[in-house]
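If your schedule permits, I should be very grateful for your opinion on a structural question. Please examine both parts with care and let me know of anything in them that strikes you as inconsistent. The record follows directly beneath this note:
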Amino acid sequence: MVGGQGRLATRVGLVVQAARAQAGWSQRTLAERAETSQQWISRVERGEVDLRLSRIERLLNVLDRRLVVESAGIADVAADDSDTVDHVEAAELLTFYVSTCGILWRRLDKVPYVVSGRLAALAQGMLVRPTRVDLRIAADDVLAASRALSTLRMPRWHERLQMYVGQDPILDAPGPRRWFAADMTEMRVDIVPSIEPGVTVAVEGRSLPVVPLGELLVADADIAELRRRASS
């Protein structure tokens, strides 16, 4: 693993999150086995911790993984964009998000929603790396969605404390609409007046409704910038 601190932390977080999911462990279970806190594990998985090598090795050992370090030329690193992926990693990431977040999709089965952001772009063939689940939910369906998600462990982002705290599944309550959903990944919700028909993508036996890529390229500055970088 090479590159700047932010990129390295992000990759370590993805490795830890994937290994934990494969083991079938919650963040709490991993924290107990690694003799640390669930909050710290959550921050590691989001790439927000400047990890020492000794702590990386200890955490990966708990997950029955080992750290492999490689070197690369500066030109090679510069050309390696951590926001983009190749076709193999794209397939793995899409499977990971759809399978690992299965409980989230099941809770929302009877609530209209569409996936937006990078995950929606990835599902439609754009080679981008998602870091969370972005959802659009219509204002009229917020109560139903809140009830559907109420059984999940969903600490909400606290802007002043800069961390996830409590258990708050009420989507339209005051504050940032950011949750860490059921020990899986960050979920952000955009409440919109209505849901327009999206594109349905079949992944791992699930039909995932997503915002059409053409709309994302116009309305989402992040997706538009990634497309610009890919074509330059």
